[in-house]
Design brief:
Layout lengths: L3 H25 L6 H14 L1 H4 L5 H12 L9 H24 L1 H4 L27 H10 L4 H14 L21 H8 L16 H6 L24 H18 L3 H9 L7 H6 L17 H11 L2 H10 L6 H22 L5 H17 L9 H32 L1
Helix pairs in contact: 1-8, 2-16, 4-7, 5-7, 5-8, 11-12, 14-16, 14-18, 15-18, 16-17, 17-18
C-alpha cells in the first residue's frame, strides 16, 4: 500500500519539466539552477524511494490492518463522492502532518532535508526524506478508519505529491484568484523561504484554504525577496548527512546536557529549542542568511559528475520497474551501491581529492560482486547497467587521473 509506483511513473515527466525550466531560464537570462544544488536534489530524491521499496518501518502493516479491521464502514470505490472526499481529507491531514513536522524537532528531523536547498526550482521538489516512514503514517490512518478504500488512499496520496512538483519554481508569478484556494508557486516560495517575515507559513499540499483557516497563510511581498534554505544551514552536499543531521544534533544535545528533563525534552521540543547548558558550550555556527554554500569544483570533477548523472537516474528507474524479478538482497545491494555513488558525487561537488580513487574502488567492488561473488544476477537489466557503468567509470577515470598527474608535473616543471 504505497504511492511510489505513481511517483516513479511521473519521474520521466519531472525530468522533462526540469529540462524545460532550465532551458527557459537560460534563454531568459534568469537561470535558477546550480549544478551542485541540483544534483544533490536528484540524489536525495532517488535515495528516498529505497526505504519504501524495502518496506522499512511498519506503515504498510498498520495501513493494511486499519483498512481491513478498523474501518467504520467501506465507502464505494466507484463513487465520485468517495474520491472527492478522500482527496480533500488527505490534503487536510497533510496540512497538519506538514505543520507539525515544522514545529516539533523529532518530526522536523525527518522533513528538514526537503528545505536544505538554497535554490528554488523544480529539482527542489525531488528533495524527499528517506526517514518519513518513521512517523508520517500516523497522520493518515484516520482516512482509512472512515472507510476510504486503500486503492483510493494510495491514488490521492500520489496525486497530492505529484501536484506539489510544479509549484517549486520562480518563473511563475502570482496567479490571482487561483491563489485564494490552491497552493501556487508564489505562496509555496514563501513556505521554502527562511526570511523572518515568511518562515513557517503555507503548509497546504494542494489547498491553501487550510492555511487561511488556521492562521498560517502569508502572501509573497514584492519588496521582500525570499531567501531559501534552512536557518541552520547544512552547508554540505552529502545526501546521507542531510537525512541524519538533525537526528545527530538531538543525540548530542541529549547526551551532553546535565539536566535529565532536558535529555528527554530535546526530542519533543520546538525545532529551535536547545538545552541552555549545551547551547552555551556548543553554540550553532552562524552564517549570513543570504550566503549560499557554493564551493569551487574543478573541471575534472565536473566531467566526472556528469558521467555519473548519465547512469544513476536510469539505473534507479530500472531497479524499481524490475522489482518483481529481484530477490531482497539484490534490491538492498542496488540501494547500497546507489547511496555509495551519491556519496562519492557529493565529495566531488566539494572538490575532495580522493574522489577518483574512491570511485575506482567502488567500481571494482561492483564488478567483483557481479562477476565472482554472484550477489547480483547478470540476467537483471539493472545489473547489466550497473556493470557497464562501473566498466566505463574505470575506462574514463584511470586515464583522467594519469592526465591530471602529468599536467600537474608539467606545471611544476
Amino acid at each position: 500500500m504505497d504511492k511510489s509506483f505513481l511517483i516513479f511513473l511521473a519521474i520521466p515527466i519531472f525530468f522533462l519539466m526540469i529540462g524545460i525550466e532550465l532551458t527557459y531560464g537560460l534563454l531568459k537570462g534568469k537561470n535558477t539552477y546550480r549544478l551542485n544544488d541540483t544534483i544533490t536534489s536528484i540524489n536525495i530524491g532517488l535515495i528516498s524511494r529505497f526505504p519504501t521499496i524495502l518496506n522499512l518501518g511498519f506503515q504498510g502493516v498498520v495501513f493494511s490492518y486499519a483498512a481491513k479491521n478498523l474501518n467504520l464502514f467501506q465507502l464505494p470505490i466507484n463513487s465520485p463522492f468517495t474520491w472527492i472526499l478522500a482527496f480533500i481529507l488527505y490534503d487536510f491531514l497533510y496540512y497538519w502532518m506538514h505543520r507539525l513536522h515544522h514545529e516539533y524537532k523529532f518530526l522536523w528531523a525527518t522533513h528538514v532535508v526537503h528545505h536544505h536547498g538554497e535554490e528554488f526550482n523544480l529539482s527542489t521538489a525531488l528533495r524527499q526524506t528517506s526517514s518519513g516512514f518513521l512517523w508520517k503514517w500516523i497522520f493518515f490512518v484516520p482516512i482509512l478508519l472512515i472507510g476510504i478504500p486503500p486503492v483510493i488512499f494510495v491514488a490521492v496520496g500520489g496525486l497530492n505529491l505529484i501536484y506539489q512538483f510544479w509549484v517549486h519554481t520562480e518563473h511563475i508569478g502570482k496567479l490571482g484568484w487561483y491563489e485564494k484556494y490552491f497552493i501556487s508557486p508564489s505562496n509555496h516560495r514563501i513556505h521554502h523561504a527562511k526570511n523572518p517575515e515568511y518562515i513557517d507559513k503555507n503548509y497546504g499540499g494542494v489547498f491553501i484554504l487550510w492555511d487561511r483557516f488556521f492562521g498560517t497563510y502569508c502572501e509573497e511581498k514584492d519588496e521582500i525577496k525570499p531567501t531559501y534554505g534552512t536557518v541552520k544551514a547544512l552547508r554540505s552536499w552529502n545526501p546521507v548527512w542531510a537525512n541524519i543531521e538533525v537526528f545527530i544534533s538531538m543525540f548530542k544535545d541529549s547526551y551532553y546536557t546535565k539536566n535529565w528533563k532536558d535529555k528527554i525534552k530535546v526530542w519533543f521540543a520546538r525545532t529551535t529549542w536547545r538545552p541552555k547548558d549545551v547551547e552555551l558550550k556548543f553554540p550553532n555556527k552562524e552564517f549570513k542568511q543570504n550566503e549560499k554554500f557554493n564551493p569551487d569544483m574543478s573541471s575534472t570533477f565536473s566531467k566526472f559528475v556528469w558521467l555519473q548523472l548519465m547512469f544513476i537516474p536510469a539505473l534507479t528507474m530500472v531497479v524499481f520497474f524490475t522489482l518483481n524479478n529481484q530477490i531482497f538482497i539484490e534490491t538492498v545491494s542496488f540501494g547500497l551501491f546507489l547511496i555509495a555513488s551519491s556519496l562519492i558525487i557529493s565529495f566531488a561537488l566539494s572538490n575532495k581529492d580522493f574522489v577518483m580513487y574512491l570511485e575506482i574502488f567502488r567500481s571494482l567492488i561492483i564488478i567483483l560482486s557481479i562477476m565472482y561473488l554472484n550477489i547480483l544476477s547478470l540476467n537483471l537489466l539493472a545489473t547489466q547497467i550497473l556493470l557497464i557503468h562501473s566498466i566505463i567509470n574505470l575506462l574514463v577515470i584511470i586515464p583522467m587521473i594519469i592526465l591530471t598527474k602529468n599536467k600537474n608535473k608539467l606545471i611544476q616543471n
